[in-house]
Design a protein that fits this description.
The structure holds 2 protein chains of 2 kinds. Helix content of chain A is 75%, strand content 0%. Chain A is mostly helical. In chain A, helix 3 (71-100) runs antiparallel to helix 10, helix 4 (111-130) packs parallel to helix 10 and helix 10 (245-267) runs antiparallel to helix 13. By secondary structure, chain B is mainly α. Chain B is 73% helix and 3% strand. Chain B has helices spanning 2-19, 23-44, 74-93, 101-120, 124-133, 135-145, 150-178, 188-194, 200-217, 226-233, 236-246, 248-261, 263-289, 294-314, 318-349, 360-363, 365-379, 385-399, 409-436, 455-470, 472-484; strands spanning 53-61, 66-72. Chain A binds chain B through residues 364, 375, 379, 382-386, 390, 394, 397-398, 401-402, 409, 413-414, 416-417, 420-421, 424, 427-428, 431-432, 464-467, 470, 474, and chain B through 60-64, 100, 103, 125, 128-130, 132-133, 135-136, 139-140, 143-144, 151, 155, 158-159, 162-163, 166-167, 169-170, 173-174, 176-177.
Chain lengths: 475, 491
């Protein structure tokens, strides 16, 4: 039985090891590094099933007052590990593009860092999942964000990537500033940074509501940036489109999930205040509408997936407002599978043809497997039953009905119709349209094929049998 | 077990086809096996037990009490029979598709499996999910192999039905949540038993949402605009399956869920339903008369006939509801046959513009006979099952609160609905005369008639229609026990 913090330490050691190998062994094919990383992360994932129970008490001090190993934390640690493993698989596929975009003496310059950085990000995500103290939240958030600063602008020769990197850097730093300022206000009001003690302090009648609300709003700005909620979502389309595609996938899934875990933990004491609930309902509504409506005219698949991630943040916010932790977590699992699958297919196809929806024309004839994988991903994102995406929406809508959030449910239903249009645009391109270049083949490595098959199986399995995830969340 | 067989035959065949099995043969085999199994189930069904028979159950999620439960009572058994027969006929009518045949037949089989699963499900989750299984195959079928303005039609039907389905999901979730906690279940039998605990005001809200949700799926006025275009543009087997079977899902849902579990709600919204169904019958009927193309005419006609079934449902009498069930079956058969023959005509002439066709009866006597019989069935000529259903619906609706001193909305609605019979006679007979009778054009004089083998599905469909037309009691006997429990005895 191992103690929970060992997991992050193991991940960090793995990252450092990869960097060492990268620095000292120039001639090694860098893809081996990625494969070692995948195996290492898989080992940590297996180790996460052998954890010993952590001490739980409100008045505890020391390490366990800012780090928790409750079921939610363990679940999202595994979530982060699985995400990183799939992202590393995608990065192996994406390596040729990276090679072209970096000045370097050797043929594989820069690839080692490309494979090593996600490991550090993973450690940061795992820490965010366990953070129950504002300071810890901030520190782990910064680890994740700084890693992403480098990853987003990695393919430096591409001006779009540099633009994306600068936008992400500046806006992210700004939002972190808001976050820290908000934490300061909360500290000023309550004198505590530990979340449990903060909520205990807020329960006392002597607390002034205005400074608390002000601090909370500032924190929401910081977290809202991370989860791509309106009105903090402007950076999303440009950054997602400019960044290297595996990094986009990582941002879209990992960063968002960690953001939601933190949001859920932080918001719990505050949602009793009616102003908070109204504000969150408003944010959820705007996010839903903006994400879905803006996605309708998109012709570039990467940009469409960016707007779609904003839309999904909207659905998740419905779950947050309805205080449905289980529904939000299940939706995030479904979101992981379907988003990573769509990005994985996009990487393979974009390398040969391009990132526009038109480049998918006739894919069903050129590569039936890839077309089928994309079909499952798109139908799951849209919310067709027997896929995990539908069950996610099912649980969220049920929670919303239970909490009488009528406006949100009606908005959710209207936006589902929008979703069907823009997701099925891709299906149409693949199955209806004829491709202009008939003789292009899509080489697919065995590892990628395995990863995609696992994701397809996961989507369809969870769509019919959600019980394993629900069980894991309960414990 | 037999239900699992009926359900998994098309599912397994769909996957086999995708993996490379000979497409049309596999599909035909699967449909044939399903049909035989369904007939067997009909024969061994025990009409003296009103409960669900052949029930199987596999637990899926204990948190949510979702189980994969299958079971049939009289109503669902007849729906399964309809599905099996129309699927078999649809696949027989289809021709071996040259491009992408495997995906084509896989989609058809998935639609059939979806309909079967939806009708046989005893669990709300799978009831909904199986119906949705048919959504993406429909999108692909109409978009790739359709005719005319197929892309727009495919988008319209998919988005419209997706929206309607999510509204339906909302209604189902509300229904689930409205039952107090210890009795709450997604199992239809448990819900039925607990339904009396739902307060009247909630019933009214839930019923409205379910009515709109199911209504969109059944092309209730004013949510009907997706249907004619979709049926006209769809390839023949898809049109047969959609108009004949898939549309009936909404009506089945109303009969299975909304009416028995939400009687107060049903009472509240009867007036609205009657006004909307009259819109179906009269407005859409008039639109059908104005059509110049045969496939559009049939599309509008199919929407119009839904009005009668809604009238039977709204009548809240045993007679009317029995009639609605019979009319569901009869309409499914007749519209499938009509679309099938229309497809054959289009295949030979390349056009369905009424003014372009003419005198086809001289060169295609078999087609003329089959179309003529199907057209008369659709109009409601006595001897066909449609007549039996319609007459029961009209009598049932008229009898509701019948008072010689005053006409209530029911009586007025019945009288107005009778206009619909005349309207359908007008457009159907005119279509028949324009297409099959009169002088024949030079270009059509060399057409071949329907082949020999196609007489099999035509024969099966016509035989069923005639059998239940002459002996409607054999249908009502099976279906009636389901409805007897819904109503306090009204003759």
């Amino acid at each position: 039985m191992i103690s929970a913090p060992i997991l992050e330490i193991a991940v960090l050691i793995l990252g450092v090891l990869i960097l060492m190998v990268e620095a000292f062994f120039d001639r090694v094919d860098k893809r081996v590094l990625a494969q070692i990383a995948i195996i290492g992360l898989a080992a940590v994932l297996v180790a996460s099933f052998f954890l010993k129970a952590a001490p739980v008490a409100v008045s505890i001090t020391g390490f366990w007052s800012f780090y928790t190993a409750d079921p939610l934390a363990i679940f999202f640690k595994r979530f982060a590990l699985v995400t990183t493993i799939f992202v590393l698989v995608m990065m192996i596929d994406y390596a040729p593009v990276v090679r072209e975009s970096i000045h370097g003496a050797t043929d594989q310059a820069g690839l080692g860092e490309f494979f090593a950085l996600p490991i550090f990000t993973c450690a940061g995500l795992m820490w965010m999942a366990s953070a129950v103290d504002f300071v810890m939240i901030f520190v782990s958030l910064e680890l994740v964000t700084v890693s992403f600063y480098v990853l987003v602008s990695f393919t430096r020769r591409n001006p779009a990537t540099l633009e994306a990197g600068v936008k992400y850097l500046i806006l992210s730093a700004l939002s972190t500033g808001f976050l820290v300022y908000g934490i300061t206000w909360i500290f000023g009001v309550t004198g505590e940074t530990n979340l449990a003690r903060v909520s205990a302090a807020l329960a006392s009648p002597a607390i002034e509501t205005s400074p608390t609300l002000f601090g909370m709003v500032l924190i929401l700005v910081g977290l809202g940036f991370k989860i791509a909620a309106v009105p903090f979502q402007i950076w999303v389309p440009d950054v997602y489109q400019g960044a290297p595609t595996p990094v986009t996938a990582f941002l879209s899934v990992g960063s968002k999930a960690a953001g939601f875990v933190v949001l859920f933990r932080v918001l719990q004491p505050f949602l009793i205040l009616p102003q908070m609930e109204r504000m969150l309902v408003g944010i959820a509504l705007l996010t839903l509408l903006y994400g879905n409506l803006a996605a309708l005219p998109q012709s570039n698949l990467k940009r469409l997936l960016a707007y779609s991630s904003i839309a999904h943040a909207g659905y998740l916010l419905i779950g947050v407002v309805s205080l449905a932790g289980e529904a939000v977590s299940f939706y995030l699992v479904a979101y992981l599978l379907m988003t990573l699958l769509s990005f994985a297919v996009l990487i393979v196809v974009a390398e040969q043809t391009g990132e526009d929806i038109e480049d998918f024309n006739g894919l069903s004839k050129r590569s039936p497997f890839l077309a089928f994988a994309m079909l499952i991903a798109m139908t799951s994102l849209a919310g067709v039953p027997f896929t995990a995406g539908f069950l996610g929406k099912f649980f969220i809508f049920d929670a919303a009905i239970r909490h009488h959030q009528t406006t949100l449910v009606i908005a959710g239903i209207m936006t589902v119709a929008c979703g069907f249009y823009y997701y099925l645009k891709v299906v149409r391109a693949m199955y209806w349209e004829e491709s202009s270049a008939k003789d292009i083949t899509f080489p697919l490595s065995g590892l990628s094929r395995l990863a995609m098959s696992l994701m397809i199986a996961g989507i369809l399995f969870l769509g019919v049998y959600p019980q394993p995830i629900l069980e894991a969340l309960k414990r | 077990m037999i239900l699992l067989f009926i359900l998994f035959c098309p599912l397994i065949a769909a996957f086999a086809t995708l993996l490379g099995a000979p497409a049309r043969k596999t599909a035909l085999l699967a449909a044939g096996l399903s049909l035989v199994a369904t007939v067997l189930a009909c024969i061994t069904y025990d009409t003296s037990h009103p409960d669900f028979q052949f029930a199987t159950s596999v637990p899926i999620s204990s948190d949510w009490r979702i189980n994969f439960s299958l079971g049939v009572d009289g109503l669902s058994l007849m729906m399964l029979l309809l599905t099996a027969v129309v699927t078999f006929a649809a696949i027989w009518f289809s021709r071996e598709v040259v491009k992408g045949g495997h995906v084509f037949y896989a989609c058809l089989l998935l639609i059939a499996a979806g309909a079967t699963g939806a009708f046989a499900s005893l669990d709300l989750f799978f009831f909904y999910a199986f119906h949705e299984l048919a959504l993406i195959p429909t999108f692909l079928l109409i978009g790739i192999w359709g005719t005319g303005n197929r892309q727009a039609a495919a988008w319209k039907i998919t988005i419209y039905l997706a929206t309607g389905s999510f509204i339906l999901l909302l209604g189902l979730l509300m229904l689930y949540r409205s039952v107090p906690e210890p009795l709450r279940s997604l199992d239809i039998r448990a819900l039925q038993a607990a339904a009396s605990a739902i307060p009247a005001a909630t019933q009214s809200n839930i019923f409205l949402v379910l009515l709109i949700g199911f209504g969109i799926l059944v092309s209730l006025f004013p949510f009907h605009s997706w249907a004619p275009e979709a049926y006209a543009s769809a390839p023949v087997p898809a049109a047969m399956l959609h108009a004949g079977v898939l549309k009936k899902f909404g009506l089945y849902g109303l009969l299975r869920l909304a009416i028995p579990m939400l009687p107060h709600g049903a009472q509240q919204w009867t007036t609205l339903l009657i006004i909307l169904l009259l819109g179906n019958i009269i407005y859409v009927g008039l639109a059908a008369i104005a059509q110049k193309r045969l496939d559009w005419l049939l599309g509008y006609s199919s929407v119009m006939h839904m009005g009668y079934i809604f009238l039977g449902i709204a009548s809240s009498t045993l007679l009317g509801t029995n009639g609605a069930a019979l009319l569901i079956f009869a309409h499914g058969i007749s519209i499938a046959l009509l679309f099938g023959i229309t497809g054959e005509i289009r295949q030979r002439t390349g056009t369905l513009l009424l003014t372009d066709l003419g005198g086809l009866g001289k060169v295609m006597p078999r087609a003329a006979l089959a179309f003529g019989l199907a057209a008369f069935a659709s109009i409601g000529l006595p001897g066909f099952a449609n007549f039996a259903g319609e007459v029961m619906v009209l009598f049932g609706a008229f009898r509701n609160g019948a008072n010689p001193d005053r006409f209530t909305i029911f009586q007025i609605a019945t009288v107005l609905a009778l206009w619909g019979v005349v309207m359908s006679a007008v457009y159907m007979l005119r279509a028949y005369r324009t297409v099959f009778m009169g002088a024949i054009r030079q270009s059509w004089s060399g057409l071949t008639d329907l082949g020999g083998s196609i007489r099999v599905p035509i024969g099966i469909l016509l035989a069923l229609s005639l059998w239940f037309g002459f002996f409607p009691q054999s249908f009502i006997r099976i279906v009636s026990p389901t409805f007897k429990s819904y109503f306090t005895p009204r003759p």
